[in-house]
Amino acid sequence: MTFERAGAVMKRYDVIVVGAGPAGLTASIEAAKNGLKVVVFDENAKPGGQLFKQIHKFFGSKEHKAKMRGFKIGDELLKTASEVGVEVVLNATVIGIFPDKEVTVNIEDQLIHYKGDAIIVATGATENMVTFEGWTLPGVIGAGAAQTMMNLHSVKPGNKVLMLGSGNVGLVVSYQLLQAGCEVVAVIDAAPRIGGYGVHASKVTRCGVPFYLSHTIIKAEGDTRVTGVTVGEVDGNWQIIEGTQKYFEADTICLAVGLSPMSQLLKMAGCTMEQDPKKGGLVPVCNQYGETSISGIFVAGDVSGIEEASSAMIEGKISGIAAAYSLGYIDEESLVTKAKVLEASLRSLRQGMFAPENRGKILDKTEEGYDISMNLLKRGYLTEEEVESYPGVKSKKGIHPVIECSQNIPCNPCQDACSKKCILIGEKITSLPVVDKEATCTGCGMCVAACSGQSIFLVDESQEEGYTYITIPYEFLPLPKKGDIGLALNRSGSEVGQAEVVKVKTAKAYDHTHLLTIKVPTELGLKVRFFKQLQEVLV
Amino acid sequence: MSKIRDRSIDIGTYCPQPDDQLIICRCEEITKGEIRQAIYDGMHTLTELRRFLRTGMGPCQGQSCSKIIQGILARELKISHLELEPAMSRAPMRPIEMSVLGNEVKGGE
Ligand SMILES: Cc1cc2nc3c(=O)[nH]c(=O)nc-3n(C[C@H](O)[C@H](O)[C@H](O)COP(=O)(O)OP(=O)(O)OC[C@H]3O[C@@H](n4cnc5c(N)ncnc54)[C@H](O)[C@@H]3O)c2cc1C
Ligand code: SF4
Ligand code: SF4
Known about the structure:
The complex is a heterodimer of chains A (about 550) and B (about 110).
Chain A: E1 3-5, E2 8-18, H1 22-33, E3 38-41, H2 70-83, E4 87-89, E5 92-98, E6 102-107, E7 110-121, E8 125-127, E9 140-142, H3 143-151, E10 160-164, H4 168-179, E11 183-189, H5 198-205, E12 211-213, E13 215-221, E14 228-233, E15 246-249, E16 252-255, E17 259-261, H6 264-269, E18 273-276, E19 281-284, E20 297-299, H7 309-326, H8 332-349, H9 374-379, H10 384-388, E21 400-403, H11 413-417, E22 423-424, E23 434-435, H12 446-450, E24 456-464, E25 467-474, E26 485-490, E27 495-505, E28 514-521, E29 528-533, H13 534-538
Parallel strand pairs in A: 2-3, 2-7, 3-4, 7-20, 9-16, 10-11, 10-16, 11-12
Antiparallel strand pairs in A: 1-2, 5-6, 6-7, 8-17, 13-14, 14-15, 18-19, 21-24, 22-23, 24-25, 25-28, 26-27, 26-29, 27-28
Helix pairs in contact in A: 1-2, 1-7, 3-4, 4-5, 7-8
Chain B: E1 23-25, E2 30-31, H1 32-40, H2 46-53, H3 66-77, H4 98-102, E3 104-106
Antiparallel strand pairs in B: 1-2
Helix pairs in contact in B: 1-3
Bound molecules: flavin-adenine dinucleotide and iron/sulfur cluster (2 copies).
């Protein structure tokens, strides 16, 4: 079927999807699987949206592709998309959506009109900015930009970086900056508590990065580019407290202060919009299937509310199925049954301490009644006393896992990783992992490598008199070698002694997380959580 | 979001602030002072500010500054930023050369 307009023929698709990120790709796969003719336009040269920058392992559970690295999820989605016949057009910017679902796309030097029976908008989000004196100097960049430079283009954004923002994006990018060989001089946040997952914060802290909460940037120093940053502590009214100014030498300032839905296309199309601070800004009003006020125009992913790739993928599936239903490819019963399963999966991700409904609340107990560490929220690490209070930490003879995961986050790959049933989370994926003292740990290391938060360590006091062997997840290059002597760092990143590498284990199943076993004097066994190579120190 | 704004409300007169020289819209190089001044000159919506000053009309199309400007406007009008209607969205979504805009084709030919 073709459409006649002004004597010309417009190419027609059942569904036009805007954006080839996790939401757009899953939406198009679902739609194509149900028999629809689908095209996806993305303005980037590479498909995958944010996923292709994400080199870390994801949270969630198996159905949400947990413990897989973001870019691999992207690869998988692309492969499936091509198998089911989705047409992916890159370097194609959608610049307008008009009545009757006409879409204009800029491809090379042409402006091409297409016609869809349904449109799914999955354009994602843009990074927020903050202003301070000097914010327009070269060297002030978004955290997402830093991630793109490092992980897509292999360019180091700078040598000494200050990160503003302690949400998951700030924490994840700080860690990736360390992996790229940058020094992160500090992570600061105007909020009084760390915004992201405790496990993400801990892995940055133990590398020696300090956190300054209730702090903000006063000024980026430098004439032609950033040479330093002055920060200061803020009071309850966000005013700088006199005398708290601190100066950091830095050549880069990364801003990770939130994202805003990129919803302009929907506003342009005439969809009813609303301002929702919980969703990150201006979003279209939509029903449970992601259908906007204009029938046949759907949304999925960050554009409909800032969340995660895992939820974006489920929303994408739902909108793909809903589009199939709206065009008569599936019946209502089939829509309702499929959507029910997906909605349950979405709900399981939206639970726990970081659930949308808990945003802004101060919780002091976990769902199980354990105290939530305030030290973790303010300084980025658990104290030794605190660590011992959680159900994942039990002392035992012989090799055993020590799980320093203390918040209710939607994550359970550790449970799936252990075939010996040493680790239990249960039905509810936000529950804290519990170590079963009776189960026998073989020291296989699968749990250490699978833990997306790098919060599982293996401790063994039975190997050598006077020493404790600690196995830590390690994702830095160059890899230390057996026999290397280095610095033993504790949870706060302070040096507490020396450690010797006794084993370096690399396996395909570990997916690029190396297992470093170090030995330290027994009295340090409960303290040491990171190994710093000496040559690194000398540079 | 309210679509109607009562312009009879007196917001007082513009008084300079120490950080008025701060550039807010980088693409069009418009300062905080210029934006604040324009508000006291009667630009009470984001669309008006945009038409008057060109804030958010440069290459990034307001992706960095629109939220910041929304905050400045809300503060000067002493209202919540949630009450402000975002500026108009119109095609083209991204800056585009006139030659491309003129080179329209129907897909599939
Ligand atoms: C540092 C960082 C770490 C993260 N870590 C995790 C994590 O561990 N787990 C997790 O689940 N989530 C994580 N996320 C969140 C996750 O990346 C996003 O929620 C997810 O990518 C949103 O998917 P999306 O498809 O909605 O948007 P995107 O991935 O942003 O994709 C949108 C796509 O639309 C395209 N597009 C936009 N406008 C147009 C247009 N006009 N024309 C054509 N194409 C257009 C863009 O080019 C882009 O490819 C992280 C995010 C960041 C920044
Ligand atoms: S090391 Fe292996 S056996 Fe031991 S807890 Fe971890 S996964 Fe289970
Ligand atoms: S310990 Fe388990 S639940 Fe906690 S971050 Fe690691 S894998 Fe996730």
